[in-house]
Specification:
Its EC number is 5.6.2.3. Belongs to the helicase family. DinG subfamily. It is a single chain. By secondary structure, this protein is an alpha/beta fold. Helices cover 46% and strands 12% of the residues. The chain has 26 helices and 18 strands. Helix 9 packs across helix 15, helix 11 runs antiparallel to helix 14 and helix 18 packs parallel to helix 26. It is globular and about 80 Å long.
């Protein structure tokens, strides 16, 4: 990281100027975070920052990042996990900040948003049309064909008006089937030099703008693609800020996961069928048929060993795909139509071949040293049949992040939830960082209360918990229902349902129910709608965004759901004064990736449950608990109806991952507090 004597104002002065310009109030945690980010930029030492809701962390990292970009004429990458935060940064935070910093920096900072190529309209596809994909059963449905046709027509009309070609700017949106007709993946793209409309390419234009910008906002998926590919996707940068860093491992894992299905093999065969000898293409089609017969006889779930019939079928698929690739030959001078067909065929053949190779290689090592986990999904006998699919995912992405992210650029990782169990090392290990080389800096009143062990091996980094402006102990209660029996496998028990009903009655509605499964959420909704006088909405009744809006608009309403509600609800004020958690959110025992990761840790002599399952639960529980306080005036109760949080040995680790709410096991204390809040709330 370059350093020089700067003539620009200090980070502290720029932050004060920016906060005043946007009409905000400077916060101690925000100042500490901004100065820590500035130090990381100076020293090149990576930084993990836990910044609670209300800290103003976006400004805290954007101000020093922009200062660095302007001073050194460099590009800074900011990566997020969600579209919502991307839009907040690009549509609100960065425009206001750029105007505010124009005078002190001597020029207005620039910014751009960059997504994967598939998110942009491909004008070559628009002009030439997409290849037929008859394997998609929706295309045989007359209504579906009509709907897709209307959507594609609308996309063609939009292509003449849009300036960006960005799918997210098309309102209302279109189905994935329709978008496929006018977009390409990076593998399918002809490239600027060969494409007849390359000079008008929206994706290339976005990349060009990103290369000239001071700040490029992207997502964790594209960050992972940039790390995985041999070619560069993101512009040159030596500073990256990873916001919503608690989701980094899952997003990178998703990008690094491959899938093999018989329909993919069939599509690859059709794509290359007219370009190579029919006998060679037929071998691949026959290999796909053979794989289908084998998969039909295998039970869904994780595979610890490679069944002999499957190994034989995958070998035949691999060799047949390789034969097609060889027959297809290298790129040559040919007309654009021929070049496009060849590129599309090669894209699918590469995917089939490489995935088959990876599936076969996944079983080479002993369990302690394996790099991938394989599983079979699908249920062709259910009411909603899904054809079998083979999946292969990395057991760890730490090595990838360490070599392709941390080794290349100074990295700042931030989120409201990073210090699990009171320390950053839990997530740092998943990121591929060594235990922190010096004591983690502690903010007053936070859970981070002990230094991590020292280890000089690997990238240097430090952790900082800047706390939160919220007074959790005065404004929030953590009620753990210690008297309830541990949750069972047969759904919610009667005592748990009684507890939920009593809490909702005491709160006068105002409840967000976070359940460990959709089945539990629906059971609670069905059984309690007749028992409580307040309306209960359930995830799935309508779009999640509409349900959250209804919940926010009517304080007496309750909202029950799972997964996305644990992290996606931002409802400040009296509409949300009770968060109910039915059980600790451990991963499902049959989840192939988490169970394989747990077993791999145990094979190396570690504690797989604490390293994988408890970490997953701590992260999600902290995120769910965080739904209660979204502003400094919010008050309420988090009710955890799983007694294991109070009684199990791992309970202390989970509790240390949560905001420091005032704890109680007494249901009367929780209900009385809720009644007082209900009485004080606006009518």
């Amino acid at each position: 990281m370059p350093s020089s004597i700067s003539t620009l104002p200090s980070v502290r002065d720029l932050l004060s100027h920016a906060v005043e310009a946007v009409g905000g109030a400077e916060r101690e945690g925000q100042v500490r975070m901004a100065e820590a980010v500035a130090k990381a930029i100076r020293t090149g030492e990576h930084l993990a920052v836990q910044a609670g809701t209300g800290t103003g962390k976006s400004l805290a990292y954007l101000v020093p990042a922009i200062r660095y970009a302007v001073e050194h004429e460099a590009t800074v990458v900011v990566s997020t996990a969600t579209i919502a935060l991307q839009r907040q940064l690009v549509d609100r935070d960065l425009p206001r900040l750029a105007k505010a910093l124009k005078r002190p920096l001597g020029r207005e900072p620039t910014f751009a948003i960059l997504k994967g190529r598939r998110n942009y309209l491909c004008m070559h596809r628009v002009h030439t049309g997409a290849p037929e994909e008859p394997e998609d059963t929706g295309l045989f449905d007359a209504f579906a064909v009509s709907r897709i046709g209307r959507e594609v027509k609308r996309l063609h009309e939009w292509s003449s008006d849009t300036e960006t070609g960005d799918r997210d700017e098309l309102v209302p949106g279109v189905s994935e089937q329709a978008w496929r007709q006018v977009s390409v993946t990076a593998r399918e793209c002809l490239g600027v030099a060969r494409c007849p409309v390359g000079t008008d390419c929206f994706a290339e234009r976005a990349r060009g703008e990103a290369g000239r910008a001071d700040v490029v906002v992207t997502n964790h998926a594209l960050l992972a693609i940039d790390a995985l590919q041999e070619y560069q996707v993101l512009p040159e940068h030596d500073l990256v800020v990873i916001d919503e860093a608690h989701e980094l491992v899952d997003r990178v894992t998703s990008v690094a996961t491959s899938e093999l299905t018989t329909s993919l093999i069939s599509a690859a065969t059709r794509r290359c069928g007219r370009l190579i000898d029919a006998d060679i293409a037929d071998r691949l089609l026959e290999a796909g048929d053979g794989l289908a017969l084998v998969l039909d006889d295998l039970p869904p779930g994780r595979m610890d060993t490679l069944p002999t019939p499957l190994g034989g079928a995958l070998t035949v698929v691999r060799d047949a795909a390789h034969g097609c690739l060889t027959a297809l030959g290298s790129e040559r001078k040919e007309d654009i139509e021929e070049a496009t067909a060849r590129k599309l065929a090669r894209s699918l053949l590469d995917e089939v071949h490489d995935t088959a190779v990876r599936l076969l290689d996944a079983f080479d090592e002993d369990q302690a040293h394996r790099q991938d986990v394989v599983w079979l999904s699908g249920d062709q006998y259910s009411a909603s049949p899904r054809p079998p699919a083979l999946h292969v995912a990395p057991l760890s992405v730490g090595g990838l992040l360490r070599e392709r992210v941390f080794a290349r650029s100074t990295t700042v990782l931030t989120s409201a939830t990073l210090a699990l169990g009171g320390a950053f090392d839990t997530l740092a290990r998943q990121w591929g960082l060594p235990p922190s080389p010096k004591p983690t800096v502690k903010a007053e009143g936070t859970a981070t209360d002990k230094p991590a062990p020292s280890d000089d091996d690997g990238p240097r980094w430090s952790g900082l918990d800047v706390g939160s402006p919220f007074d959790y102990r005065k404004h929030g209660i953590l009620y753990v229902a210690k008297h309830l029996p541990p949750p069972g496998r047969d759904g919610l028990g009667e005592r748990t349902l009684d507890e939920i009903a009593e809490l909702i009655d005491a709160a006068g509605g105002r409840a967000l129910g976070l359940f460990s499964s959709m089945r539990a959420a629906k059971q609670a909704t069905e059984e309690l709608r007749d028992r409580v006088k307040h309306p209960i909405l359930c995830q799935g009744d309508d779009s999640t965004s509409l349900l959250v809006s209804k919940f926010a608009d009517d304080p007496r309403t309750c909202l029950f759901g799972t997964l996305s509600l644990w992290q996606g609800v931002d409802v400040p004020g009296p509409s949300l004064q009770l968060v109910i958690v039915d059980r600790l959110p451990f991963p499902r025992p049959d989840d192939p990736v988490s169970s394989a990761r747990q077993r791999a840790v145990e094979a190396r002599g570690g504690n797989g449950f604490l390293t994988v399952a408890a970490t997953h639960a701590a992260l999600l529980l902290a995120q769910g608990t965080g739904r209660l306080h979204r502003s400094v005036t919010d008050k309420g109760v988090v009710a955890v109806l799983d007694s294991r949080l109070a009684t199990a040995r791992y309970g202390g680790f989970l509790r240390a991952s949560l905001p420091p709410l005032w704890p109680t096991h007494d249901p009367k204390v929780a209900r009385d507090a809720l009644r007082r809040l209900d009485a004080a709330a606006p009518a």
